[in-house]
Every structure is written in C-alpha cells, then in structure tokens.
Amino acid sequence: MKHGTVVVKDEMSEPGPAKASTRERILEAATELFYARGLRSVSADKIIERVGITKVTFYRHFRTKDELVVAYLEGLAEQERADVAATLTRAAGDADEAIRLFAETIGAVSCQPGFRGCPFINAAAEYADPDHPVRRTVAAHRHWVRAALEEMVTPLGPTDPAGVADELVLLRDGAMVSGYLGDPATVSRSLHRAARAVLGSRTQADTSGPTTAA
C-alpha cells in the first residue's frame, strides 16, 4: 500500500527471510541518517519513510527508537573491532607497526567525505544520562577500545600499559575531533607522533626515575 509517495509493504505477506532483510534495511538507513544528522534530530518516522515500510513493521523489529540507536552503535562497535583485528593481522606481531597502522586508520577515517567525528562521542553528547542504554553502550565500547590499546602497547615495554592506553584514548578522541574541525590530512601523522611521545616518556620515566639511597 501507499503512504504519501512512499511505497510500503505489509511484512505479514512477505516470506520469512525478508524479516532479516527488513531489519538490515532499517539499520542501514538509521546508520546513514543518525551519523549525518544526529540521533535526536532523526525521528523514527523519518527512518520509516526512508526504508519504505509501515510503522507496524518498524516496531516489530525495534520496540523503541532508542533500541534502534543502541543497535546502530553496536553495529559500529562490531565494525571497529573487525578493523582493529585487521590492523593487528597486518602488523604481524610488530607492536610499533600496530600503533602506526592504528594512527593511519584514524587518519583515513577522518578524511572520508561526510566525516563528523566519533559517533560514540557524538552519541554521548546527545544522551546526558550515564545510565541510559545508549550511554551504557558507548561506555562498553570505550572500555573495549581502552583494553585493545593496552594489549597493543604492552609488547613495547611500559610498566603501566593501562595508563598508556588511557592516554592513547585521549589522543584518539582528540584526533577524531581534529579530523572533523581541523585538517584531516594531518591527523595520522600527528596522532602517531603523539602516541610515540607518550610511549617514549613512559618508558624513560620507568627506566630513569630517581633511585632510593641505600
């Protein structure tokens, strides 16, 4: 049937496999619209119109818009985990190369058309309540990022790899903002230099600190 100028389908008449396809189409539309326009400014109706489905079909897949926002973020988190795994595979056990490739990936993302910064930082800015499911999803992903960076830098020898990972998360956040507001072409180089400086200072501090008199 038609709703305005959009052709919609009644999912009840579609074969079983179409359900997964419909969910994917909703997520694809949400991913595009949420990132480009913001989570709060994109209504469920706008996504329904973009996909060309009924409200009944939409809410059969996602009970609330917030549930869709969480699914959108979880999809992005899954993609980032795959990207980091690919980076580690390319580095072939070379931790310094892994850090360089990590910075290179951030720089490449920042140079993509339509880049608007880190979607997780953007989501946190739109949902103030730290106990909201969206914020919990953001927190879970940032915890994973921190753990992945800690694992990445540990072979380089700092005695406080968790502290280094915390600082690298700060650098990553700044690089994503800089890629959006500044010159994205400089992000990779600057992030790699800053990461190496953090690692160098931590290692020097660990090996050349003051000694205790006997």
Question: Can you offer a commentary on this structure?
Answer:
With 214 residues, this protein is mainly α. The protein has nine helices and two strands. The protein has a two-stranded antiparallel sheet. A hairpin with a 2-residue loop joins strand 1 and strand 2. Helix 4 (65-91) packs parallel to helix 7. The longest helix is centred in the middle third of the chain and has 27 residues, at 65-91. It is elongated and about 60 Å long. The model is unreliable at 1-20 and 205-214 (pLDDT under 50).
Low-confidence parts, pLDDT < 50 over ≥5 residues?
1-20, 205-214
Calculate Rg over CA atoms.
Answer: 21 Å
Please identify the structural class as seen in this structure: mainly alpha
Topology, number of strands = 2
What is the makeup of the main sheet? 2 strands, antiparallel
Strand order in space, largest sheet: 1-2
Terminus-to-terminus distance? 87 Å
Helix and strand run: EEHHHHHHHHH
Fraction of residues in β-strands: under 5%
| Average residue pLDDT | 86
Shape: elongated
| Total of helices | 9
* Percentage of residues assigned to helices: over 70%
